[in-house]
Structures are given as structure tokens and as C-alpha cells.
Design a protein that fits this description.
The protein is an alpha+beta fold. It has a single domain, classed as Cytochrome P450 (Cytochrome p450), CATH 1.10.630.10. Strands 1-2-8-5-3 form a five-stranded mixed sheet, with helices on one face. Strands 4-10-9 form a three-stranded antiparallel sheet. A hairpin with a 5-residue loop joins strand 1 and strand 2. Helix content is 47%, strand content 9%. The N and C termini lie far apart (50 Å). The protein binds protoporphyrin IX containing FE (HEM). Protoporphyrin IX containing FE (HEM) binds next to helix 12, helix 13 and helix 17.
């Protein structure tokens, strides 16, 4: 096993390099941008096992010192504060339960008419036959509007969240990036505290708290009436939901549309039969998922991965997109196949931290692709694929997505 350095054109096409790594072994010691090494897990079976392994902790207190020195972890808080994604059971179980009720398949299905309405409004505002940036015009505003409404934060502030969110998830260690990350954490926490205080006041006045359907109110009730979480956790949960609720789905729509534009047969099949869209969403998640690598874990004991000892204290990174192209699990993994059987991809993770928002993301993806292709069946790329801009790797250890996606919105197939 040797140290691996990333570079070259990794963001444009990470898959050839991932294939080479996966062939060489299930786990590799790699250099991270934060000044220390990590163990990168590349094969499906080992990735799935790692995501469900209690010896790999999510708690910042166990993180290696170099992450602390890089400012990515402080005390009990990860980059998005104290929340369910940055802790282990029993705190994880408690914090997930508080929010879990809002994300059941049934609750999410009830959002369908509103998500459809937001989608239709966004698409109606796009000029048919002309060039647009699909990220700016559609892929970003759809999920941020949905999650803002669910939480009960003003949608008019969405450009501010976008900037804060981008700064917060940047993992580069350059001093100016670190400063921006810290400033964004302070600004977003201050903003959310203000909203919580306002909502508390309103709830006291109206005494109608339980009737408020938004998640901020639900969290306040859980904290103030049932003592299920403290104030730091309340803000951390909100921050996580706001960021996780849009930074990922934007990439499902962006990466997914690009994959379809590069596979005209598949695109044609979907235009002809929109009933295939839910299967397409799963296949697009597997083929070029929004979360390239799972969030960071730390081994709290020596862990054997396919004969390699990952020593206690090591940082472990599970390469979800690499595992989802493992030929030992998926036949012809580099092909987009709408009829792929048993498509148990890892795009939403696995185990206790399996994506809480998966039913919402699936619904948003299904509505987005059905409506986009229904209205603009002749959609095509407005630039050669090699000129597309991906969000910079130094800022994106975890997510994979396009900065812009220029398309021409043809209405005729
Ligand atoms: C966790 C992917 C959309 C909320 C995760 C994880 C992945 C993931 C891979 C696990 C990370 C890990 O184990 O390190 C995705 C993808 C999405 C998406 C691919 C879109 C296509 C959403 C949405 C929400 C959301 C819309 C809604 C608010 C969460 C939360 C967690 C999570 C709260 C933490 C769960 C826990 O720690 O128990 N997501 N996500 N996600 N996701 Fe998503």
C-alpha cells in the first residue's frame, strides 16, 4: 500500500483512477489536503461493511489531531456543528429520532404537490430554445426552496445560505479558506439563532406551537417541552438539514442531467416512457453520485480491511462513487442501465447514518427529471463536456458536482 496523491483532472472524471485503485486493493493510504493521511476504502463489500462498523466513529472527539489543527473539528463539533452526522450512539439515536418523524416516506409524499408546484414555476421561468445554466436556473433553487420551506426559514435568504453553505463545506486548509469557513459558521449560527428566538416568541404568543408544521418549531418543541436536545444540538441539526438538504440534491439533478445528455439512448427512453424515471434516479445516483466520499470516520480500534490493518486513530474515508462502480458488485458498472437489477448502491450511505433525507431526495429527483424532460425533451449540452466546470476539488473532499451546466432547452425531441 502506498500513499496516493490526487491531482490532474480528478473532478472531471475520477473513475479511471478509482478503477485502478480498486483493482489494486480494497483500501489505500492516501494523502488528504488537511496535512495528514487517511485510509480510502474503494471496493463495494468493504465500503458497505465500513459504513456499518461501530469501530469507525463519527464523533469529532476521536478525530486525528491534524483535523483539529486544520480547524475542521473543534471540541464536540464537526464542520456543521453538533448534530446527528457528527456523533455515535446513543446521542446519534436520540438526535436522529427527534427529526426522523418529519422524514418518513408518508410525510414526504405529502409534500409532492408543493414540490411539483415549485418545479413547474422554476421551469416555466426558463426560456425555451435558449441557453441557460441549469444549475443556477433549476438544480439549485429547487432543493433549497423545498428544504427552506420544510424548515421554516425564509426562502428569500437562499443566496445567503448558498454562500455560507459553500464556505462551510470547504475543506481546504489555506488560512483564507479556513477564515471564511469560521466566519460562515458564525454567521449561519447567528442567523439560525435569530430565527429560533423569533419562532419561540411567536409560539409563546400564539400558544399554537404544535400546530406549526415546520421543522424549526418541531425542534423547539422537542427541546423546550420534552428536553430531547439542547440548544447547541438544535442549531447543529438545523445547520445540517439546511446544508445536507440542498448541497446534495443539486448534484443529483446536475450530475444526473449531464449523464443523460451523454447517453442519448437512455435519455430517449426516458422521454418516451416517464414511468422509467424512478429507476433512472437510482441508476444516476449509482453512476455519478452527489456524495463522492462519505463524511469522515475515525478508527477507535485497529480494524482489518481485506487483510490490511487500519490502525486505531486513523482517518477512514469511504469512496462511495468508487464502490458503486465495483464490477464485483455491478455488471458493466461504467454503463448507465435503467434495467439494472438489484441496484443497492451506496449513494445514500448505509448503516446508522444512512441518509435521513433519502425519501425526499428521491421524490425531488423523480419530479425534477420527469418535469424537465416533459417540458424540454430536446434538451442538449451547450458546450463540449470537457469544457464543463466542476466544483473545485480542494473545496470538495466530500461532494461531487458541477459549478455550471450550460444547456439549450429544446422543446422538440
Ligand atoms: C446523511 C447522501 C439528500 C439529510 C447522508 C449520507 C449520505 C447522504 C451518503 C451519509 C453520510 C455518511 O455516512 O458519512 C445524500 C444524497 C442526497 C441527499 C446523495 C441527494 C440525492 C438529503 C436531503 C436531506 C438529507 C434532501 C434532507 C434534509 C441527511 C441527513 C444525514 C444524511 C440529516 C445524516 C443522517 C445521520 O447521520 O443519521 N446523506 N443525501 N440528505 N443526509 Fe443525505
Amino acid at each position: 500500500m502506498q500513499a496516493e496523491h490526487e491531482g490532474g483532472n480528478h473532478m472531471a472524471d475520477p473513475y479511471p483512477k478509482y478503477a485502478r485503485l480498486r483493482e489494486r486493493g480494497a483500501v489505500h493510504r492516501v494523502r488528504t489536503p488537511f496535512g495528514g493521511d487517511a485510509y480510502l476504502i474503494t471496493r463495494y463489500a468493504e465500503a458497505r461493511a465500513a459504513l456499518n462498523d461501530p469501530r469507525l466513529s463519527k464523533h469529532p472527539k476521536n478525530a486525528p489531531a491534524f483535523l483539529r489543527e486544520a480547524g475542521l473539528v473543534t471540541g464536540d463539533a464537526g464542520p456543521l456543528g453538533v448534530n446527528m452526522l457528527s456523533c455515535d450512539p446513543p446521542d446519534h439515536t436520540r438526535l436522529r429520532r427527534v427529526i426522523g418523524k418529519a422524514f418518513t416516506a408518508r410525510r414526504v409524499l405529502a409534500l409532492r404537490p408543493r414540490i411539483q408546484e415549485i418545479t413547474d414555476d422554476l421551469l416555466a421561468a426558463l426560456p425555451a430554445g435558449e441557453e441557460v445554466d441549469l444549475i443556477e436556473g433549476f438544480a439549485f433553487p429547487l432543493p433549497i426552496t423545498v428544504i427552506s420551506e420544510m424548515l421554516g426559514v425564509p426562502v428569500s435568504d437562499r443566496d445567503r445560505f448558498r454562500t455560507w453553505s459553500r464556505d462551510l463545506i470547504s475543506t481546504a486548509s489555506a488560512p483564507e479558506v479556513r477564515q471564511r469557513r469560521e466566519a460562515a459558521a458564525t454567521a449561519l449560527t447567528g442567523y439560525l439563532s435569530g430565527l429560533v428566538a423569533e419562532r419561540r416568541e411567536r409560539m409563546d404568543r400564539e400558544l399554537a406551537s404544535e400546530a406549526q408544521p415546520d421543522l424549526i418549531s418541531a425542534l423547539i418543541v422537542a427541546a423546550d417541552r420534552h428536553g430531547e436536545l439542547d440548544e447547541t444540538e438544535l442549531l447543529g441539526e438545523l445547520m445540517l438539514l439546511l446544508v445536507a438538504g440542498h448541497e446534495t440534491t443539486v448534484n443529483l439533478i446536475g450530475n444526473g442531467t449531464l449523464a443523460l445528455l451523454r447517453a442519448p439512448d437512455v435519455l430517449g427512453a426516458l422521454v418516451a416512457d416517464p414511468g422509467l424515471v424512478p429507476a433512472a434516479v437510482e441508476e444516476l445516483l449509482r453512476y455519478d453520485g452527489p456524495v463522492e466520499r462519505a463524511t469522515l470516520r475515525t478508527a477507535v480500534e485497529d480494524v482489518d480491511v481485506d487483510g490490511v490493518t487500519v490502525p486505531s486513530g486513523s482517518l477512514v474515508v469511504v469512496a462511495l462513487n468508487c464502490a458503486d462502480r465495483d464490477p464485483a458488485r455491478f455488471d458493466r458498472p461504467d454503463e448507465l442501465d435503467l434495467a439494472r437489477p438489484d441496484n443497492q448502491h451506496l449513494a445514500f450511505g448505509h448503516g446508522p447514518h444512512f441518509c435521513l433525507g433519502a425519501p425526499l431526495a428521491r421524490l425531488e429527483g423523480t419530479i425534477a427529471f420527469t418535469s424537465l424532460l416533459g417540458r424540454f425533451p430536446g434538451i442538449r449540452l451547450a458546450c463540449p463536456p470537457e469544457r464543463l466546470q466542476w466544483r473545485s476539488q480542494s473545496a470538495m473532499m466530500i461532494l461531487r458536482g458541477l459549478e455550471t451546466l450550460p444547456v439549450i432547452l429544446g422543446t422538440v425531441n
